[in-house]
Design a protein that fits this description.
This protein is an alpha/beta fold and 243 residues long. It has a single domain, classed as Spore Coat Polysaccharide Biosynthesis Protein SpsA, Chain A (Alpha-Beta Complex). The protein is built from nine helices and seven strands. Helix 3 crosses helix 6, helix 5 packs parallel to helix 7 and helix 7 packs parallel to helix 8. It is globular and about 45 Å long. The relative contact order is 0.16.
């Protein structure tokens, strides 16, 4: 299997309370892995925490939201020649121990690897999990593929997936983009991972926001994705190998 050169992209907006723990865990358990903190216009001491720990930082002057912050990180990875990127949360929910199995699937040929909480574990019956089930159903109806954890924010994108992400307008690190990738012949794999509750602060996804989010994703998957121009990641992978 080919060795990969991954970059961990950590979007961070007002995560001063949890960021140091995230960095320490990565350095302890994945010391060989490069990562970059994308400060998304934080108003707290997120940048100061990252600087104090000598972390690599991409400091955005204004808040762009998750999509803008992640895209900035993907552009950085592309410019620096990384083979793949891994989307990783700054709030401590994601665990460094999940990364090796994701990289292994990419080495085996997966274009995208999703860290799933529910590949081998049942979901609880909360409103958020009902929303996850609704989004999974929409993806299954439109692509024939069953994703057990479509709302997971722990995802790996290989080189062809990176190229696709940067070449198609309005891409986001969200479930509807996974639907787009499947229709573009991407090979998507899930691996079982464990996740914690956030280490500090409150999630921006309140009950009302969660409902709006799952409805927006479902509508996008069922309707809007049909109007997007599809790519062929199988062809892009062949071209990449031929270079």
């Amino acid at each position: 299997m080919n060795e990969l050169n991954p970059l961990l992209i950590i979007p961070a907006y007002n995560e001063e309370e949890s960021l140091s723990s995230v960095i320490l865990e990565l350095r302890e358990f994945q010391p060989e892995l490069d990562f970059i903190i994308v400060n998304d216009g934080s108003s707290d001491n997120t940048v100061e925490v990252a600087v104090s720990m000598n972390a690599n930082i991409l400091d955005l002057p204004v808040n762009l939201g998750l999509s803008g912050a992640f895209e900035a990180g993907v552009k950085y990875a592309k410019q620096k020649g990384y083979d793949c990127v891994i989307q990783f949360d700054a709030d401590g929910q994601h665990m460094a121990s999940s990364i090796p199995s994701m990289i292994l699937e990419a080495q085996k040929g997966a274009d995208i690897v999703i860290g799933s909480r529910f590949l081998k574990t049942k979901k609880n019956r909360s409103l958020r999990m009902m929303g996850s089930d609704l989004i999974a159903l929409a993806i299954r109806l439109t692509t024939g593929v069953n994703l057990t954890d479509p709302t997971s924010g722990l995802r790996l994108y290989n080189k062809s997936a990176i190229d696709a992400y940067l070449s198609v307008p309005n891409m986001t690190p969200e479930p509807d983009t996974m639907s787009f990738y499947i229709k573009s012949n991407a090979q998507i794999k899930e691996v079982q991972v464990n996740m914690r509750e956030r280490l500090a602060g409150d999630s921006y996804l309140t009950v009302s926001r969660s409902i709006r989010y799952m409805l927006r994703m479902t509508i996008s998957i069922l309707i809007l994705q049909f109007f997007r121009k599809k790519l062929d990641l199988t062809k892009m992978n062949r071209m990449a190998v031929g270079k």
